[in-house]
Design brief:
Elements lengths: L10 E3 L5 E3 L7 H10 L9 E3 L5 H4 L2 H7 L4 E4 L1 H8 L2 H11 L3 H4 L11 E3 L5 E5 L2 E7 L8 E5 L4 E5 L4 E3 L4 E3 L9 H13 L4 E4 L3 E3 L2 H24 L4 H11 L10 H10 L2 H20 L1
Parallel strand pairs: 2-3, 3-4, 4-5, 9-12
Antiparallel strand pairs: 1-2, 6-7, 7-8, 8-9, 10-11, 12-13
Helix pairs in contact: 1-3, 7-8, 8-9, 8-11, 9-11
Length: 294
């Protein structure tokens, strides 16, 4: 995405009913098709395409991949299903955020026929064949249309963005708190849902597998609380949101090893910018203040 490798992961689950978890952006769809072909998965073989949520770096390739794999059912949170059928509102919203770089970064999300889209509610599952299931649970906080997915055979848990952004080059973990739907309480509750399921690994969409589950989930909570507290302090000091962004950057300068690797940090900022994440927290704190004043 955006000229970078190793930025968004798609996962193939092999078995009687092969499934792809996450499509990446539309501009990556051709690469996904080629990679699946290299793994022996042809146009008639893929049974299911699952996305954790409908942000364009996760689901932007759905329309392209649905066309490339005509037998595949497309599975998504109930709140996201209509946007895959008619992506016009989703694309308009993304255009307001990304402006002229939208097409360069993501490409167009093509519509998918409604008959091929299935809503995956809390407690529902995807049949992987042979009694194996991909079990779904609501994991909002990053976005309300977000699900976590647990493989009943392996114990792998697909985190989407709910556990933050993992940088494998440096083993940094940063929160993903963009507007408009970030909520601290529901984000932490989602992490507790992950912990309760006792997964063997966390499979981050950004980027890759992590085996130290307990420590990583602890870090996810810690990072969320830290960033919210830093923005809260900036507001209390009378700073505006742009100065809050600067403060978060300054206060976390020594916290993340990725800061010493400019190219990797540039990739991370493209994917999950400090500015966007602080804006998401700022909006959340605005909402909390309004509730307190009611």
């Amino acid at each position: 995405m955006g000229g970078y490798d190793g930025i968004t992961a798609g996962y193939l689950i092999r078995g009687e009913r092969p499934a792809l978890v996450e499509t990446g952006a539309a501009r990556s769809a051709g690469e996904v098709v080629r990679a699946l072909a290299g793994l022996g998965v042809g146009p008639a073989d893929l049974a299911t395409i699952v996305v954790t949520h409908i942000h364009l770096d996760h689901a932007g390739g759905v329309g392209d991949l649905a066309a490339a794999f005509p037998n595949a059912e497309v599975v998504v949170h109930p709140a996201g299903a209509r946007h895959l059928v008619d992506p016009s509102r989703l694309l308009a919203s993304a255009a307001r955020v990304f402006g002229p770089v939208l097409d360069e970064l993501f490409g167009p999300l093509l519509p998918t026929d409604a008959g091929r889209v299935r809503a995956l509610g809390d407690g529902d599952a995807v049949d992987l064949g042979g009694g194996r299931r991909l079990e779904s649970f609501d994991s909002p906080g990053h976005a309300r249309h977000h699900v976590g997915l647990l493989d009943s055979l392996t114990g792998d848990l697909y985190t989407g963005d709910a556990a933050g952004v993992w940088t494998p080059e440096t083993e940094d973990l940063r929160p993903a708190t963009p507007p408009p739907e970030f909520d601290l309480g529901t984000a932490i509750a989602s992490l507790e849902k992950m912990r309760e399921r006792r997964p063997t690994r966390l499979l981050f969409s950004h980027f890759g597998p992590v085996s130290d589950v307990g420590t990583t989930l602890d870090r996810s909570v810690e990072e969320l609380r830290l960033w919210v507290e830093l923005v809260r302090e900036a507001r209390a000091d009378g700073l505006d949101v742009d100065h809050a962004v600067s403060r978060v950057r300054e206060r976390t300068l020594e916290r993340y090893a990725v800061r010493a690797l400019p190219e990797v940090e540039a990739k991370l900022e493209l994917l999950s910018s400090t500015e966007a994440d602080v804006h998401g927290i700022w909006r959340y704190l605005d909402q909390q203040a309004a509730l307190e004043n009611d």
